[in-house]
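Morning F.,

Quick status update on the modeling queue. The single chain you submitted on Monday has been processed. Sequence for confirmation:
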Amino acid sequence: MFEGRYKPYLWLIKFIGVIVPRRLRADWRQEWEAELRCREELLAEWDRLNWKTKLDLLRRSLGAFRDALLLQPRRLEDEMFQDLRFGARMLLKSPGFTAVMVMTLALGIGANAALFSVVNGVLLNPLPYPQPEQLITLHQSKPNFATGAIPYPNFRDWQRENQTFSAMAISRGASFSLIGAGAAEQVNGRWVSADFFSVYGVKPQIGRNFAPGEDERGVGPVVLISAELWQRKFGGSPDAIGKGLTLDDKSYTIVGVLPASFKYRNTDVYAPIGQWDTPALRSRTAALSLHGIGRLKPGVTLAQAQADMDGVMRNLAAAYPDANRGNGAKLIPLKESMIGDIRLTLWMLFGAVGFVLLIACVNVSNLLLARSTGRTREFAIRAALGAGQWRLLRQSLTESTLLALAGGGLGLIVAGWGTKAALAELPTTLPRVEEVGLDGRALFFTLAISLLTGILSGLAPALKTSRRRLSETLKEGGRGASGGRTRAQGILVAVEMALALVLLIGAGLMIRSLSALWNVDPGFRTENLLTFALSFPPSMRNASPEAVRANLRDLSDKLNSMPGVRAASFSDGASPLQGEDDLFFWLDGQPKPASTSEMHMALVYRVEPGYLTTMGIQLKQGRFFTNQDDERSLPVVVIDEVFARQYFPNAAPIGKRINLGDDRGPLQIVGVVGHVNQWNLDSNDKESLQAQLYEPFRQLSDSPSGVGVVIRAEEGAGKAGTPLFDSIRRVVQSQNSQNVIFSPQTMNAVIADTLAERRFSMILLDAFAIVALLLASVGLYGVISYLVGQRTHEIGIRLALGAQRRNVLLLVLGQGMKMAVGGVALGFVAALGLTRLLTKMVYGVSTTDPATFAFISFLLTIVALMACFIPARRATRVDPLVALRYE
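Structure tokens below.
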């Protein structure tokens, strides 16, 4: 029919004919053909006109076009205002209906906004330092350890020889006894190099920073303190600068107070590392838990810095082969180092709460679909009066967007409450917790998802309303929903049930994982086991080793004789699930390795004879330490079963000897004990360092500045913890009033802390799953109630013709359960794939665990049956006489 310039349009019409439904296809084809025919006639008429007429027509057309452009914005503004005013009026006409939808959306939007504030604070916000992308954490890697501590002499060589860092600093955590400023207390401190704060770009709020060279040995002792300690001890007075602070019987001068925004691992006191009086600081084989931080030069990439540091380590390996052969440098961006594995957990939870929002959207869509049925005649009349499909579509979307914005406003209140609740449950080890809150980015996110939610939830009802044929609608007379509309609502209900099932299965897997972890045998008995740290006063630290041992024996006897205490023991070095300490060794009878990197490593626990009984660790072979294993006896050690299997696979270890490289000579193995979980409960076996070695506490020659203490309480005495801890504190301070007890906790609390991240994930996922179950149940209930209302006339006829009420009940239940079972089946299949994302978060259970899948599917089906039963029972109570007069 059309040739020449319009021939390409025919291909477009044919393509549309393939993808567009037949009803719309015929309408569109007629409109397109009419349009093309009109254009063909106009072009033919244009060709017959002379040039003056054409010029006049063009001038008039441009004028009309200009007027239309000027009037269009005002007209569009007026129409939008009318849509908003009309939409608000229609929503206020049904306050109950509107309130249900607003609360539903507020729940979904608020939960998303709350979790986004956590994700934003922890993952998205840049670190609060100048040019944070230049900050890199520095570690020394070993053959069996990707990241390790840096010996101080190596670090000083790193500072001098690198070419890619503008500055480097190093630090180590410490504890100080603060004496003289009120009651004696233990404060968290750090040994730092002089440019530690300049690397971070942090300046003191009063006073000054460390000066270059103040971290050298022999320089006058100075400290910087935190804003919290400044307020607590000095009342925030500027006069604190220049005052003295006594730490471990040594006087330091306060030279600066750090800003309150700088909270580095709850540290109160920062002292130059040169003031740390330990000979090991000068050793290239003693790492001493020193880790570095560096700032890259502008324009330098991480790969360039890594290549530079690899060259520095090769030079050190050539210069000091005994200490550095096989070692390397490991560089990690500061933000990545801080966040660690929490990134996967937070994004998983953010995806889960997104499911809750989708369920809320589907719920609102279903309610709007049900509501639109009563308004079909209204939209038909508006269309008959000249309203186009776009205007009707826009009106429906305006109403749903108003609902979503109202839900978003209420959701901000929910988000504020939810953020506070999340902060209360966040694990203490979660980085950047202090930066979590509802900031401008969170508010913008809430607005954005509110608008998106309004469009998504209103799109299906709007399309249904705008596409209905005028003649069909007027003939229907509002008698009920069409089959297409019922099918659409059924699909939405099935989607709701599927999403809820996925969340419920994920929550079920997390619950089973946490239960399995609590049942893991850590290698010791956790019930009634208390632990704390004890710091000695300077007078005891400076005493002779004999006097220190006598004081420790006296204190140990007092603790063991306390009422409510079954056994007590001092410990040093590693502590299960709390802190690690390791040493190098080689087997006696073998040549001493050329460097420490070629030696074996083991975790070391320095304990008293009562440690095994106190901890409840099993003795496998030989004996444990006795009171006779002191400084005058033969040096002995006890190893664990992993050590025995690894280094004595074909021989009895009892009687064998190992060398530690100290003045005691070879140490004889006298016993083998059970292995304890040093690292954690869920992935302890994945750590490369597993061998464990025990040394007698009384054979150590050094005078400790403090010890760890473990106490096995009598049954019931240690449940509360606090009363027994108070009694212990009185006994400890009765020996010396300057003894300081800190970090008291039960071993069950220690284990709970190691599982805090999993518990946080489980609580949130469980909360999301419960909300999803509630919303899905309400959605199913609402749809079935709506369908019962639409079929009241039909149900009345059935009952009038002799149908049993039991049959009506089964009819309605069957219709609802078809939707529910379809959703459960869809969710079952989706969960099989999506739960694989939880592989790193579950323990002791498969991500496709049949028992969990079966139980959750059964539970959701029962809940769906209950949601359908109430409207189904109401349907059986329909009075046939009333139903026949229903219309």
